[in-house]
Structures are given as structure tokens and as C-alpha cells.
Design goal:
The complex is a heterodimer of chains A (about 290) and B (about 100).
Chain A: E1 5-9, H1 14-17, H2 24-43, E2 48-53, E3 68-71, E4 75-78, H3 83-86, E5 91-94, H4 97-107, E6 114-116, H5 123-132, E7 140-145, H6 155-171, E8 176-181, H7 198-210, H8 213-216, H9 221-228, H10 235-244, E9 250-258, E10 263-270
Parallel strand pairs in A: 1-8, 2-7, 2-8, 3-6
Antiparallel strand pairs in A: 1-10, 3-7, 4-5, 9-10
Chain B: H1 3-15, H2 17-25, H3 27-31, H4 38-45, H5 49-55, H6 59-68, H7 73-87
Classes of the chains: A alpha/beta (about 290), B mainly alpha (about 100).
């Protein structure tokens, strides 16, 4: 069954945890866009959801930091953060180990992805789930790209990871949705928390929605750090979704800087057409 | 400078209730297990959040340690700013990857 949905959204903890401090009109308009994204995803009737996140030392540390990792588990726990701080109650969330095993096995034909049979969810996945699957009933397959610090996963490898996921999803009997979560520009948990580079964000989203691969991969990490802060490294998750939707273009459902949420709040979906991903690097394709 | 071990203990404090308990009941024994300089040990114990930031601790680790030590969000942000005023720019780690 071809991939049925691909989208992106923000995941900053303040989106839920500091909701009461935000301008109500701004907050409500963003929540409405996430509601539209939820409806679009639900209309695609997915059997499982892959969330490509930028993990924040919830599961991995510099003693063994994977460039890519996917969860191989039937259940998760999250959030790891304080429930009151994040505004989301801790709970158990279903996975699908058997499907994850098939997906990872296929992805590994092209990308050397690590797997983890134990995975805790932080705000990077909990905030998107809070809006997109509010009943927490859609089996989750968590994925992670190292967006924390050098040596960072190269952007072209993030795109290739998305391509590999797409091919894996297309070969499964299940209907699968993919959501990438992160940035765009932000300076999380630093003295510059709340700073947002709107012009840089809008330029990035133009590249993303046009799905112009070369333009998406043209950033250097130094440039991204200067223009978009450490949080800007999370463009890797959006780029992976672009790779999964190669041949398709996207629509930005929402973009608005909301400083109390510490991020330019974003929601977007790819219009998945009939285009199939290209350049299968697996031996079977050779 | 042993930023790796400084961040490692914060990672473990954030994740592991047993490490947190030991930090409360036998901090000296616990801290011996990490290769830390006197400056790093003092910053952890005080806690001097601003100095920890200047030493290069990633905010995704530091914000949880600050919360654990009772810093509300605004105080955490201000502590980092004060750290830069007192000790100068961040010396290592991700926030020192480019020169201002």
C-alpha cells in the first residue's frame, strides 16, 4: 500500500505547556491548523504512524549517538518530562513491533538505521501526538535523527532516509502515515529562547513545499546555526519527509511566530500523488 | 575540561531515579564516578547554572537540571545570561561551534 500521508509540524514543549501564556488568537489559530492536519491524516485512514523526531537526550547520549534510529517495540511511555511542565499526562502508547521489524529491515537495505527495543517519548513526539492522535490509539513507530550536535547527520542522508522509508512503506500491506517534527529556527533552552528568524523560516518552507531537493540540501550547519540557532538543525526531520514525498509538492497549512512557544509554529502536508520515489539503492534494485 | 562527563551526569540525573537518589544521599560518592574538574564539580553542587551553560552544557540537558534544582523557567534563562556576563562566552560544546 503506498504511503498514505506525509506532513510536518512543530513540537516545542511550550505549545501545550505554556498555552495559557499565549495570545489566545494566535494559539487558537495554530491549534485549528493542527486540527486540520489531524483531519487530513485521519481521512487517509492510516494503520500506523511513523513520527520522525529530533530526539533530545531522552533515549540517546554521546556514548552511542545514532545518525538514525527507529523503535522496535509494541509500546512506549511518555512524556519523560514533568507532566505539569509539558501539560501532557504520562501514558502508555501503542506501537507495532512486527510492522516496525519489516520496515526497519527494508530501510536497512539503503540506510544504516539503528534500532531500539526500548524507547521513551519526549515532547518531540508527545506534542505532535497530543494534536494529531489525541486518543493515542494509532500504533506509533518512532524514528530519530541526530539533530543535537556535531557530527550531525548530513542533510542528504536525511533525505535518503525519507526515500528509504517511502519505499519501505510502499511495500507494506498496511496504510502508513509519516510526520516529521521539529524547528524550524529556534534557540531552545538558551538565553535566546523565544528568538525566531521568520524570513529564514519562510524561505525554508518555500523550499520544502516545492520539494526542491538541491535547495533543501544547500544549507551548511554553520549557516543554519547562525541564522536559525541550534534548533534549526531539526530541519533534518522536514527534509526526511520531503524525501519520503519525493516527486510531490506540499502545502504549508500554517506558519506564525509565537515567541511564548519559542518557535515559528508550523503545520504542513505533502500532496502525495502518484509519483514514486526514485533511485532505489537496495541490492534488489541493482 | 571534561564536558562529556559533565553532560553525562546530567543526562543520567534526568533519566534515572536511582542516580537522582544517590545525588541527594551520597553526592560525593556519586560524583567520584565521573571525570570532572573542580570548577565543574563546584558548578554542579552550588548549582551555578550560568557557569554550567558557559562550560558548554547543552540546554536540552541543563533546563531539566535547573528545574530539578528549583529554577522556574524565567530564572533559568536569567541564570544563563548572568553566567555569560560573569564568565564570558560559552567555552565549548554546541554553542561554541561558531564565533560571534
Amino acid at each position: 500500500m503506498p504511503l498514505v500521508f506525509a506532513g510536518v509540524c512543530s513540537h516545542a514543549p511550550g505549545i501545550v505547556g505554556r498555552a495559557h501564556l499565549a495570545d489566545p488568537a494566535a494559539r487558537d489559530s495554530f491549534y485549528a491548523a493542527l486540527g486540520k492536519m489531524r483531519e487530513t491524516m485521519a481521512a487517509s485512514a492510516p494503520d500506523a504512524l511513523i513520527v520522525i523526531a529530533a530526539e533530545h537526550f531522552g533515549n540517546f547520549f554521546m556514548n552511542n549517538m545514532p545518525a538514525f534510529a527507529m523503535a522496535l517495540t509494541d509500546h512506549y511511555e511518555g512524556p519523560i518530562e514533568d507532566e505539569a511542565w509539558l501539560g501532557i499526562r504520562r501514558r502508555r502508547i501503542p506501537g507495532n513491533r512486527e510492522l516496525a521489524l519489516r520496515l526497519i529491515t527494508r530501510v536497512m537495505q539503503e540506510v544504516d538505521v539503528a534500532y531500539a527495543e526500548e524507547w521513551k517519548l519526549d515532547h518531540g513526539i508527545m506534542v505532535p501526538l497530543h494534536f494529531l492522535t489525541p486518543n493515542y490509539d494509532l500504533p506509533l513507530i518512532a524514528a530519530n535523527i541526530n539533530c543535537q550536535g556535531p557530527p550531525l547527520t548530513p542533510l542528504h542522508r536525511a533525505y535518503a532516509f525519507g526515500r528509504a522509508l517511502r519505499r519501505a512503506c510502499d511495500e507494506m500491506a498496511e496504510r502508513i502515515a509519516i510526520v516529521g517534527t521539529g524547528g524550524i529556527s529556534h534557540w531552545p533552552a538558551t538565553p535566546n529562547s523565544g528568538k525566531i528568524n521568520e524570513a529564514w523560516d519562510r524561505d525554508f518552507l518555500a523550499r520544502w513545499s516545492a520539494n526542491r531537493r538541491e535547495e533543501l540540501l544547500a544549507y551548511t550547519d554553520e549557516e543554519t546555526y547562525r541564522q536559525a540557532g541550534q534548533g534549526g538543525f531539526e530541519i533534518r526531520t522536514f527534509i526526511a519527509v520531503a524525501g519520503a514525498a519525493e516527486g510531490s509538492t506540499g502545502e504549508v497549512l500554517y506558519y506564525r511566530p509565537i515567541p511564548i512557544f519559542s518557535v515559528g509554529c508550523t503545520a504542513g502536508v505533502m500532496r502525495l500523488g502518484t509519483a514514486k520515489a526514485t533511485q532505489d539503492l537496495s541490492p534488489a534494485a541493482a | 575540561m571534561s564536558l562529556y562527563y559533565l553532560q553525562k551526569i546530567l543526562f543520567q540525573l534526568n533519566r534515572d531515579p536511582v542516580v537522582r537518589r544517590r545525588f541527594e544521599t551520597e553526592p560525593d560518592e556519586l560524583l567520584k564516578e565521573y571525570e570532572l574538574t573542580k570548577e565543574e564539580l563546584d558548578a554542579l553542587r552550588e548549582p551555578n547554572i550560568g557557569l554550567l551553560y558557559v562550560l558548554g552544557v547543552n540546554g536540552q540537558l541543563l533546563m531539566h537540571y535547573a528545574a530539578m534544582r528549583g529554577f522556574p523557567w524565567a530564572d533559568y534563562i536569567e541564570a544563563m545570561r548572568e553566567g555569560v556576563r560573569r564568565y564570558g562566552p560559552v567555552r565549548a560544546g554546541i554553542y561554541a561551534m561558531v564565533e560571534d
